[in-house]
Hints:
seven-stranded parallel β-sheet, alpha/beta, 15 helices, single chain
Amino acid sequence: MMMYIDPGTGSMLFTVLLGLVGAAVYSARMLWIKLRFKLSGGKAETDAKKIPIAIFSDDKRYWSIFDPICRELDKHGVDVVYMTASEDDPGLKNTYEHVKAEFIGAGNKAFTRLNYLNATILFSTTPGLDVYQWKRSKNVDYYIHIFHTAGEVTRYRLFGIDYYDALMIAGEHQARDIRDIEKFRKLPEKELVMVGIPFMDEMAKRLEREGPAPEHPRTVLLAPTWGQSAIFAKHGGGIIDTLLKTGYHVIIRPHPQSFASEKELMDRLMAEYPESEQLEWNRDTDNFYVLRRSDILISDFSGVVFDFSLIYDKPVIYTDPNFDLAPYDAFFLDHPLWTFSALPRIGKELNDENIHDLKGLIDSCIEDSRYQQGRDEVRRETWAHFGEGAVRAADYLMQKYEELTNKKGESK
């Protein structure tokens, strides 16, 4: 008698299997790295002097998250080492007196450095600590994570935040989901600190300084994320054809990961739809200006949906959010994602029935006043302590550093 496994469970089991295989591969790599150190007569690099607060960024685009927090720490004279895996990270050129920036290599080279780091606190927005190649260092006392989106924390890949000690969050829905995952996996409760969203605070201040974009033709921004559930995987170039037929100016800004994980698809689409007076492809590191001059955003489950809607106060069109949750922590929740309730309040869904009338959909979203009220509601739910994020994050880091160092002093 054959045993039946439903598709959802099968997908989850397959994901777990891939995770185990990946973990084995990365463990073998780490073993080889250690062996090479020993054979060469060397030792794994460990920072001789303990760093008070180390920050790790796996990509240059996250400097916008850390910059305002570094600025606040620098004001208080706190020594910080900013470690980045991007050689062209703008953080490497920071002018803060107390923030030393280092390029520590990309990929495994960066993780090898982190695995032997000597620091009181390691602060990062990178998920996957102690899951694959990035291991907790025995010389780091405390690991703190900050999220880089206003949405779910459980839309990280499996086990993405399980092994951090503390998480900086921005809404009660995030706290609820974290506690649910901890209970399900029987994990100790992490420290949850409600700080808000520092990078969104900064962007809102910047928008207030620079004001709205100059007068321009109606402009539609298509900014999908990457993967099998994303817009291009579902609709291919057809959605670009439909957008061009509206007569509106069209900007396409794929997720940066698409150019690495879906290079063939990106190369094909950019060749089939070259830039013109009506169409432009945008890959700016800083997305401020492209968001400011767009009148409406079309996206899927990318975090840019909330950046655009909540900061720039403009409507969005989103694709069906019922994507496959199996690879994500959200798979284990017993309630729908908060995003599923938020999206209908800030815009309209794009589906097979209405995609052919995309112009009408765009016009109705821009002109319908009910989405203003929805944006206000969602903003209150997922953006705590508006304008105070960087100060609250820096205050917590300083308080935690003092607590950890005092505890060490008492134990001597």
